[in-house]
Amino acid sequence: MAERKVGDICGSSASTTSDDHPKDTLDLKPEDGDPESPEAQKDQDLKSVLVTSVLNLEEIDVDLYRGTHHWVPRTQRLFGGQIIGQALVAAAKSVGDNLYAHSLHCYFVRAGDPKVPVLYQVDRIRDGRSFTVRSVRAIQHGQPILICQASFQMLQPSPLQHQFTMPAVPPPEDLLTAEELIRLYLSKPDLAEKYKLGLNKLLAIEVPIEIKPVNPPVFYKVTASEPKNLFWVRARGYIGEGNMKLHCCVAAYVSDFALLGTALLPYPGYRAQFAASLDHAMWFHSTFRSDEWMLYECESPWAGGSRGLVQGRLWRRDGVLAASCSQEGVLRVKPVTRPSKL
Ligand SMILES: CC(=O)CC(=O)SCCNC(=O)CCNC(=O)[C@H](O)C(C)(C)COP(=O)(O)OP(=O)(O)OC[C@H]1O[C@@H](n2cnc3c(N)ncnc32)[C@H](O)[C@@H]1OP(=O)(O)O
């Protein structure tokens, strides 16, 4: 069994040792086996959401795919992470299994319309000896909403390997999920009625991602903090070993969730009037499982000119850096008006 050193670029299998030769395509169908088995049932639980719907594109023609939506933010703009994840799925479809997603760069050029599907047009830019590049346009109403370039590399180990050290934080088992925190706040007898509606709306959102904030916010008691945030994150449900490209697509979906908000943390006196991701870049460093808890370390080194720059690092529980991302977003804010105490 070929031992894959940690730190290899996203490979064809999510395990760190693998000598299998999985199929050439981005296989999203549940693995073969007994469909009634507990494993297959667990498998179906997630694949009915992120894998069999959001990241399972319909092939319309060669290099042309169609994606649908599962969850749409209250802004009624398509969630950027969905468009990135679907674009990477489309790009990966024409890339052999001996090549691994190592980076993507994209611009969000128009808001996505949740009322119509998204078409993904893939352009096979170059198939090099080690690197293969695909360009993808996400299209709605005949216009691009996202332009994305993704690069894939053949496995090429190297003696040059280093990474930062993962922050020391409590394990996810010691923390509450976002839903559990909201229920805890809703259980407070002195919670004002006006807050209950907002918290119940948050509870009703069916985001296919589980989150455990390391430093949970005290709802509605906003205080200024450094533009840094840490939370444990994983895709809801079960994906399994599967194809590493699939885990990269799920990580791309996850990476855009709650990232831009990091830039707002130092400004409790303001709320976003218009906030949207402008671009998003991502680098995949090592094998990982997007359906297992990973630590998402977010920070914003800069904000200005109605924009904020945010960066994220996704860490495996064993301290290996799995992926990094950077994003700039437009942030138009207005002062928070609080009822006077007089
Ligand atoms: C935070 C998340 O939720 C993360 C996400 O997933 S966001 C989803 C992914 N990202 C996107 O959808 C962004 C897609 N890109 C775009 O929509 C456009 O490129 C863009 C809006 C960013 C810029 O386009 P543009 O034509 O230059 O628009 P712009 O002049 O900036 O105006 C954009 C909006 O800001 C408003 N606006 C402009 N100036 C403003 C100001 N000074 N104060 C407040 N609002 C202002 C405009 O009224 C407009 O609002 P509507 O769309 O409701 O009309």
From TrEMBL:
Domain Acyl-CoA thioesterase-like C-terminal residue range list: 221-330
Gene Ontology BP terms: acyl-CoA metabolic process; fatty acid catabolic process; peroxisome organization
Bias-annotated ranges (Basic and acidic residues): 18-32
Keyword hit for Oxidoreductase: no
GO CC field: peroxisomal matrix
Alphabetical UniProt keywords: Fatty acid metabolism, Hydrolase, Lipid metabolism, Peroxisome, Peroxisome biogenesis, Serine esterase
Main location: other
Catalytic activity from the UniProt record: chenodeoxycholoyl-CoA + H2O = chenodeoxycholate + CoA + H(+); (9Z)-hexadecenoyl-CoA + H2O = (9Z)-hexadecenoate + CoA + H(+); (5Z,8Z,11Z,14Z)-eicosatetraenoyl-CoA + H2O = (5Z,8Z,11Z,14Z)-eicosatetraenoate + CoA + H(+); hexanedioyl-CoA + H2O = hexanedioate + CoA + H(+)
Pfam families hit by this protein: 4HBT_3, 4HBT_3C
Entry keyword Heme: no
Residues covered by the Acyl-CoA thioesterase-like N-terminal HotDog domain: 70-153
Subcellular location: Peroxisome matrix
Single GO MF annotation: fatty acyl-CoA hydrolase activity
Domain of life: Eukaryota
InterPro entries (alphabetical): ACOT8-like_C (IPR049450), Acyl-CoA_hotdog (IPR042171), Acyl_CoA_thio (IPR003703), HotDog_dom_sf (IPR029069), TesB_ACOT8-like_N (IPR049449)
Record text on subunit structure and interactions: Homodimer.
Function of the protein: Catalyzes the hydrolysis of acyl-CoAs into free fatty acids and coenzyme A (CoASH), regulating their respective intracellular levels. Displays no strong substrate specificity with respect to the carboxylic acid moiety of Acyl-CoAs. Hydrolyzes medium length (C2 to C20) straight-chain, saturated and unsaturated acyl-CoAS but is inactive towards substrates with longer aliphatic chains. Moreover, it catalyzes the hydrolysis of CoA esters of bile acids, such as choloyl-CoA and chenodeoxycholoyl-CoA and competes with bile acid CoA:amino acid N-acyltransferase (BAAT).
Similarity comment: Belongs to the C/M/P thioester hydrolase family.
Protein name: Acyl-coenzyme A thioesterase 8
